[in-house]
Amino acid sequence: MGEQPIFSTRAHVFQIDPATKRNWIPASKHALTVSYFYDATRNVYRIISVGGTKAIINSTITPNMTFTKTSQKFGQWADSRANTVYGLGFASEQHLSQFAEKFQEVKEAARLAREKSQDKTELTNPALNITSHQVLPSPIISSNGPGEDKLFRSQSADVEITTEKERLKKMLSEGSVSEVQWEAEFFSLQDNNNKLVAALHEANANVDQWKKQLTAYQEETESLRQRVAELESQGAHDSSSENNKEELNQTLEELELLIKAKDEEIQMLKSQKCGRWETEGEREETLQKLQELEARNAELERRLHLAEQTLAETLAEREKIQNEVTKVAEIMDVKIFELSEIRQGLAKLVESN
């Protein structure tokens, strides 16, 4: 089947400093993928992490390994074959717990695989099994001879190696806590620094944009002020138009009264024409006078119509100018409000910097 991945996670990888055995050396600047692999052919479990083309971690798990949590987001284990100690910094406590649980499972599986392999060896080599059971007690029974001295030296060396291993584990477990915390705090501060730098660049870009927008608003405000001045001058002209309007109204009233009087005179002449026309000459004169009155009446009506049309156009133009003045005033209010907000934002940004 070959070697297959059974679990993967991401973490910052560290190795213990071989010179001091106390400080951590980061294996990469960024988090790497750390995976558990199982080799079905050799029945072996390994932890592997690759950075680029280089294997950062290649640790074969044995039953005597121990994964230790030294903080909420950091854990470590010692690999005697690689003669080093690996440390992993995780993004959260949950990722650390998952990795530790999987380490315990793989460690137990490695132990069972070793026991199964030993049982298989004993079954396939019964003579070796018997010999081992017969040879082990013999040095204890003998009281004199070189065999007892050899066993004593072997047991003494094993005790020293075990004591040295325990001392090394305790030193790494206790003495590396502060270094791990410092390393974690360093990476946290580095991330915060990168975020602050990015925020500062963004703020500077926003400041440049606000300055450009402020300049555009100032130019637009100046043009609006000029437009308001023009409209005010037109409003002054409208005051003179108001006077003209009053004069036109007065003229219209006079014309209406005059037309009304002429209509009455025409009606009176028409009612009296039959009784008062004594001669043909008087009739012709009266008819001529009547035609003149009708022509004058028509002229007055035409002037009245023109005056009414001029008055309507003047009122429409005045209403249009008033609407435009109102619209410009509203736009100026909005621009002045936006301009004040931009100035406040710039002031706050300057104070924060």
Automatic annotation (TrEMBL):
Domain (WH1) ranges: 1-110
GO cellular component, one term: postsynaptic density
Keyword Coiled coil: yes
Family: Belongs to the Homer family.
Alphabetized SMART domains for the sequence: WH1
Residue span of region Disordered: 228-247
Name of the protein in question: WH1 domain-containing protein
GO terms for biological process, alphabetical: G protein-coupled glutamate receptor signaling pathway
Subcellular location: Cytoplasm; Postsynaptic density
